[in-house]
Amino acid sequence: MERKHVLTIAGSDSGGGAGIQADLKVFSALGTYGMSVITAVTAQNTLGVTAIQEIDAQIVKSQLDAVFSDIRVDAVKIGMVSNQEIMDVIAESIQRYQPPHVVMDPVMIAKSGDPLLQEDSIATLRSVLLPMATLITPNLPEAEVLLGCNITSTTEMRQAVKELAGKMNTQVLLKGGHLDGDAVDILSTGKEFSSPRIETPHTHGTGCSLSSAIAAYLALGEPIDEAIAKAKEYVFQAICHAFPIGNGHSPIHHFYQWDQGGRKVWDS
Ligand SMILES: Nc1ncnc2c1ncn2[C@@H]1O[C@H](COP(=O)(O)OP(=O)(O)O)[C@@H](O)[C@H]1O
Ligand SMILES: Cc1ncc(COP(=O)(O)OP(=O)(O)O)c(N)n1
């Protein structure tokens, strides 16, 4: 079968749990060929982010041109993009090369509480980048910033996801990982994706991994509902199989093998 190619445009996490590193692990685990355009380098571990170096926008553009001018891109995932110049360069590139699927995780703050987006860039994120995506995957705090209101229950999520989709003129998957109870994510079509909540501190990288898994499944030809359902099951298993590393919130775990019956066996 023809190998599918998936590109992540995101920040680097030195601890290997989120950002570019998580995305490439997901792409490999799902049997796709992963490529990366790095927008920022974060000094990060399981405890938090201690430093950020944004990459020069022209270098981001050169990385994008290098990939798109040579290699077919079946889907793109966009993660941490911290300033307006880099947003503009990415938007121009998406406009020029027209990849078939663009999944954008509008990363603003890491779970550790550290900011990953310059505050004066939120308007550009809202007006330039988000409307170019096929699907955006905000968590609750991100959706609250984008809408300017609080979202405190699944009932409020149902209303919020429709408002966001209207405002951004794109499909929205609103993630419910920050509420209590079952982990329920809601698509702007009204379809809901639910899994039991796993009581664990080891959830670093869930948002990055969900969006990159959706991008990989779209590249593999799944329709959007199926891509989300499979990505959610992938993240659920990756949380279940997380093991403690470091002194804080450990990353989820991406590696599984296939047994002789073609079933996935997670390597814990
Ligand atoms: N403890 C958990 N148990 C099961 N699923 C979870 C848990 N935490 C998050 N998820 C799921 O992981 C994905 C990412 O969720 P969320 O934490 O809301 O995003 P982010 O990592 O961007 O903050 C969503 O599909 C969410 O439902
Ligand atoms: C470089 C980088 N990009 C994105 C994030 C946010 O990742 P996420 O999957 O939402 O995981 P948490 O930070 O919330 O654990 C990040 N931390 N670093």
Helix/strand layout:
Elements: E1 5-13, H1 19-29, E2 33-44, E3 49-54, H2 57-68, E4 75-78, H3 84-97, E5 102-104, H4 122-129, E6 135-136, H5 140-147, H6 154-168, E7 171-174, E8 183-187, E9 192-195, H7 206-219, H8 224-240, E10 256-258, E11 264-266
Parallel strand pairs: 1-2, 1-4, 4-5, 5-6, 6-7
Antiparallel strand pairs: 2-3, 7-8, 8-9, 10-11
Helix pairs in contact: 1-7, 2-3, 3-4, 5-6, 7-8
The structure holds adenosine-5'-diphosphate and ligand LCLJCK34.
Ligand LCLJCK34 binds next to β1, β2 and α7.
Domain Pyridoxamine kinase/Phosphomethylpyrimidine kinase: 13-253
EC number: 2.7.1.49, 2.7.4.7
GO cellular component, one term: cytosol
What does this structure look like?
Strand 10 (256-258) and strand 11 form a beta hairpin. The radius of gyration is 17 Å and the shape is globular. The model has no long low-confidence stretch (mean pLDDT 95). The protein has 268 residues and is an alpha/beta fold. The chain has helices at residues 19-29, 57-68, 84-97, 122-129, 140-147, 154-168, 206-219, 224-240; strands at 5-13, 33-44, 49-54, 75-78, 102-104, 135-136, 171-174, 183-187, 192-195, 256-258, 264-266. A 9-stranded mixed β-sheet has the order 3-2-1-4-5-6-7-8-9, with helices on both faces. Strands 10-11 form a two-stranded antiparallel sheet. It binds adenosine-5'-diphosphate and the ligand Cc1ncc(COP(=O)(O)OP(=O)(O)O)c(N)n1. Adenosine-5'-diphosphate is lined by residues 139, 175-178, 183, 185, 195, 197-198, 203, 206-207, 210, 232, 235-236, 239. It holds the Pfam family Phos_pyr_kin. Belongs to the ThiD family. It is an enzyme of class 2 (transferase).
